[in-house]
Each structure stands twice: as structure tokens, then as C-alpha cells.
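#struct-pred
JK: can someone run the complex with adenosine-5'-triphosphate? inputs below
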Amino acid sequence: MSEMLGLSGIEKTYNAGKPSEVQVLRGVDLSVARGEIVGLIAPSGAGKSTLLHIAGLLDVPDGGRVTIAGEDMTGLGDRRRTGVRRAGVGFIYQFHHLLPEFTALDNVALPQLANAAPQAEAEARALALLDKVGVAPRAGHRPAALSGGEQQRVAFCRALANRPGLLLADEPTGNLDPETSDRVFDTLMGLAREEGLSALIATHNLDLAARMDRVLRLEAGRIVPV
Ligand SMILES: Nc1ncnc2c1ncn2[C@@H]1O[C@H](COP(=O)(O)OP(=O)(O)OP(=O)(O)O)[C@@H](O)[C@H]1O
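RT: done, C-alpha cells with the ligand placed:
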């Protein structure tokens, strides 16, 4: 299987050289194959958000190498990094960050319009995605009129709208009650499989992690055996 995401020797230190220095990542190696869904378990503060930001090109490591779809991201300029991120990476966070003044449909269509998709095509794709996660009947509602689980499903659709090859998720159902989290997580897994995505999904929840293809553990800045 070919590799979608590769991290090797990733190091990151905040406030280097100051009394407040925090050495967060100390040589992280990991790989996500095409079509593979990998869970990342990490105690709070272990550096999982930092790692996901580096993997998704929102932050640069102090050392090490990031490759996406076989392309080495080291030393790329901001424009190229932004281009790769927009076209190839979908993000899902614990809180949905939907735009409150737009409908569910518009929230999913907007990233496609920003990528120059024709409006009719963007709306058709948005509706098809919302249908897959069971929120199509509420496509015309704004986020405030949706339940927490529905809001998070819309956020999944938005992350997948531009057909990214790689999905990065940081506690994607962490703000939901356990039962809703379970159901919504199943929806996410189904959608990711259907779209053939490669994914790195951070969670504190061991039951959810067990549903993924493989689980990694981040501890004290390194990947350790689970
Ligand atoms: N911009 C920053 N400046 C200084 N320290 C930071 C910065 N961002 C994160 N840190 C520190 O780096 C460590 C790792 O942070 P990170 O957010 O990656 O952890 P996390 O594993 O995602 O935690 P949580 O599960 O609690 O969200 C923490 O000790 C945090 O305080």
C-alpha cells in the first residue's frame, strides 16, 4: 500500500531557549497508508494537537520531515503549503467551528466555492454529503437550529467537501455525550471509508480508537507501543 502521510523524526519545541521552553515532540515517526484510518491516543498535553497541526501543514516542525502523497513538504513556501492543504487535507476539530450565519448546506458548499467549483456543483455535492450523514432534511437550517451531533456531522461534510485525500481529526466527537459520540463517530467512519480517505484521528476514547485500522500512542513526545 502506498503512503498518504509520512512523518519522520518530527521535533517541536515552544519558546526554545526561554525559561518557559516546552519540548513537545521529540522525534515522531508515523505513517498512514492510502485508505487507512489510524487512531492516535494521547494523554492531555502530550502534543497531539501540535502533531496534527504539523501533519496538516498549519505549523512547521523544528526538525524532521513531512510527506503528503509522496511529496516532501520540507522547505516549501507558504503558497505551496496552503495549496496542498486546501486541496488535499480536511480538518475536523472537537468544536465544529461552523459559520453561524450560513445554513448547513452553505457551510458545506463554501469550501468548494473557495476552490472555484461552480455553485450548482458545490450545492449538489453538499446535499449528497449531508444526505449520507442523515442531515439532508435540515440542510436549510443554521447551526444554532441543529443539535450538537447534527452540527458535528455537518462539520464532517465540510471537511470532506473538497475530496481531500487526507483527513485529520482532533477529538472529532469529544464535545458530545457518550451515546451521541458513539453514533456520530460511526457516521464519520462510514463516510471516511466510503470516500476512501486516509485518516489520522486523535481521541481519548479507547473504544472509539479500537474501531480504527491501527492505533498509535503518543507519549512524552514520541510514538510508543499501545
Ligand atoms: N503556542 C504555544 N506556546 C507554548 N506552549 C505551547 C503552545 N502550544 C502548545 N503548547 C504546550 O505544548 C504542550 C502540548 O500541547 P498540545 O496542544 O499539542 O497538546 P494536546 O496533546 O493536544 O493536549 P490536549 O489533549 O489537552 O488538547 C502543552 O504542554 C502546551 O501547553
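RT: quick notes.
The pocket of adenosine-5'-triphosphate is lined by residues 14-15, 22, 24, 42, 44-50 (CB under 6 Å).
Helices lie at 48-55, 78-88, 104-114, 119-132, 148-160, 178-194, 206-209.
JK: thanks, will look after standup
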